Every structure is written in structure tokens, then in C-alpha cells.
Amino acid sequence: MPKWQEALSLLSQVVRGADMPLRLALAALLARQHILIDDVPGVGKTTLAKALARITGLSFSRIQFTPDLLPGDLTGGLYPDGKGSLSFKPGPLFAGVVLADEVNRASPKTQSALLEAMEEGQVTVDGRTYPLPRPFLLLATKNPLEEEGTFLLPEAQMDRFGISFRLGYPPTEVEVQLLMGQNPAELIPELPVLFTPDELLALQTEVASLHLHHRVALYIVHLVQATRRHSSLAVGASPRAAMIWARMARAWAFLKERTYVIPDDVQEVAPYVLGHRLLPQGEARWKRDHVEKAVAEILKDTPLPREMVR
After folding, report:
1. Which CATH number does the domain housing residue 21 bear?
2. I need a surface site. Which of 14, 19, 51, 57 has the fewest CB within 10 A?
3. What is the pLDDT of residues 112-145, one digit of tens each?
4. CA-to-CA distance for 30 and 69, rounded, in angstroms?
5. Do the beta carbons of residue 216 and residue 305 sit within 8 Å?
6. In the chain, which residue ranges form alpha helices assigned H by DSSP?
7. Are the C-beta atoms of 48 and 21 separated by less than 8 Å?
């Protein structure tokens, strides 16, 4: 069994009944993309982040975002070293897997401190740049039902998240098991470590090299262009969205044990790549179900690529 298949199996032991989100999370890691989980509290977001860090052998850090959180609380800063000079003390962003919990509760200034980390894998403090660990995955959460005391995430930051999804409520039997004292999260310390950081980096490189036929690339561009023309959308997908879409499609193909991308890969990841990027018109602004409906219409109306030679 390939290691990534074993990883999915292990993740499903601690986050039960969420097969699609688990596959998406692993695909995002392989595609070097960050994750936004837009869901209510208590459905397993922290458990997923901890389990992912455990099986990948990456260090883990959880940051609770609050209105009084400052950029330096994330990045770290310069502190006296007791020898008459200043030395850099890394902040909680310096981990392999970082859980940014309730990211929309922090001020826009603090949120903006994440942009450099997400885009370039580094932070700049007092004019000096410090590289973050590699691989680096930011998994952010926000509650879609609570607006009081929150700030809208800037579009520039939303565009840095590779995918967005909901975990959803667990199946009935899983909830019964929780009530009976069978908490899957307690299994996390017992999970085996499947990868070294170098192995993960090698897998990411392999995924990035998967074949993307020109016709499939053109198909992605046509889909992106269609989002910009759709009558129910105020803002369509950016060129960055198209590039991320292609990377996620490659990772999806890899998880299906293929060395090339097919249109099905593009279509299956579409709602998760586009869901947080597209802005509906008028009163439907920020409502994800309107976006998902528009994406479904675009996928249906855009012609598939013709025969492809691999």
C-alpha cells in the first residue's frame, strides 16, 4: 500500500465519516496549498490538523486568533539575549503544520502578517527575513455563522488559500461512539509517523511534475474565464486561481494513482478551489451555496477537451 493511502486510512480513524475532506487535505499538502475550513465549532478541525501533523512527522502549532493578537505574536521578534544584543525568537508560525483557529477574529493588520508566510514560506521581522520550516502548511478555520467580533478576510488573503471546505457533522454512529467515551482524537499520539520532511518534499516535487496536457490546461482557462462572465458572480477567478486549480488537479490525479491529469480531476476539485474565491452578486454576497450553484452551471456548460495524447 502506498504511504499516502496509509495516511488516508490513518486519518479516517481519528476523523471519521469525512472521507472527502481528508482526501482534500492530503491533496492540498501534496500540492503545497494552504487550507481554509469554513465550519461551525466542534466538528473536528483541530483533530484533523493534529492528526495530519502527526502522520507526516511535522511539528504542530495552534494559534487562537483574537482581536488583540499582534503580528509579532505570530512571527516572533527580537529580544535581549542577556549578552547586550538582540536575538530572534521564532513565533508560533515556525511549525510544519500551523492551525490558525478562528482566523477572522484577528484585525486586518494581523491577518496580513500571514500573507508573506503563505505565499513565500518566510516572515520578515525588522527588515530581516526568516525562512519557515519546509514543508509548511497553514490550516485556518473560521465560523460561517458568527459575525460579531470578526473581520472579513481580505480577498488577497482568501486567494492564498488553495482550497476551502467544510468538515460537516459526523455520522450518527460516530456521535454515539463519542457519547460512549470513544474519542478518536485520543488515538493521535499512537499514530505512526509515515514520512520524513525530505520524503514529503520529494512527493510534492513528484506531484508538481505530473503531466498536464495542453488541452486540459486550456480547459481550466476556459472554466476560469467563464467565472468572470457568469451573470450571478460579481468577482470571478484570478490567474492565481487557475494555477492553484492545476496544482490541485495534479495532486488529485496522484491520489488516484495516475501520472497525468484528466478533466474529471479538474471538475472534482473545482468547488473546493473556487468556493472561497468567487463573489456572488447583490444580496447573495458571501453565500457559498450560490457560488456552488454557479460553479456547477459553469462545469456543465463548458465543453470538455477533445481527444488527448498523453
Report:
1. 3.40.50.300
2. 19
3. 889 899 999 999 998 899 999 999 999 999 887 7
4. 30
5. yes
6. 3-14, 19-30, 45-56, 71-75, 108-120, 155-158, 172-179, 197-208, 214-229, 239-255, 263-274, 288-301
7. yes
The domain tally of the chain equals: 2
The bridge status of strand 279-280 relative to strand 233-235 is antiparallel
Residue 152: inside a domain:
yes
Last residue of a domain, one of 202, 219, 236: 202
What pLDDT digit, counting tens, does each position of 21-50 carry?
A: 999 999 999 999 999 999 888 888 999 999
3-state secondary structure of 152: coil
Task: Specify the long-range contacts of residues 144-151, CB closer than 8 Å, at least 24 apart.
Answer: 144/38, 144/39, 144/40, 144/288, 145/40, 149/67, 149/105, 150/102, 150/104, 150/105, 151/104, 151/105, 151/106, 151/107, 151/108, 151/111
Q: What is the Cα–Cα distance from 140 to 164, expressed in whole angstroms?
A: 9
Does the residue 29 lie in any domain? yes
Q: Same domain for 10 and 67?
A: yes
Q: Which residues pair with 233 in a beta bridge?
A: 280
Domain limits for position 120: 3-202
**The model's pTM:** 0.92
Residue 152 and residue 121 share a domain: yes
Distance CA 275, CA 162 (A): 10
Instruction: In whole angstroms, give the CA distance from residue 118 to residue 160.
Output: 7
Give the contacts of 156 (CB within 8 A, at least 6 positions apart). Answer: 115
Residue 310 falls inside a structural domain: no
Q: In b/e form, how buried is each residue of 171-187, taking b as 16+ CB within 10 angstroms?
A: eeebeeeeeeeeebeee
Q: For residues 299 and 200, is the Cβ–Cβ distance under 8 A? A: no
Strand partners, 34: 161
Q: Are residues 30 and 121 in the same domain?
A: yes
Side-chain-side CA neighbours of residue 283 (13 Å): 0
Tell which of 202, 227, 254 closes a domain: 202
Whether residues 188 and 252 share a domain: the answer is: no
CATH number of domain containing 243: 1.10.8.80
Residues 279 and 158: their CA atoms lie apart, in Å, by 11
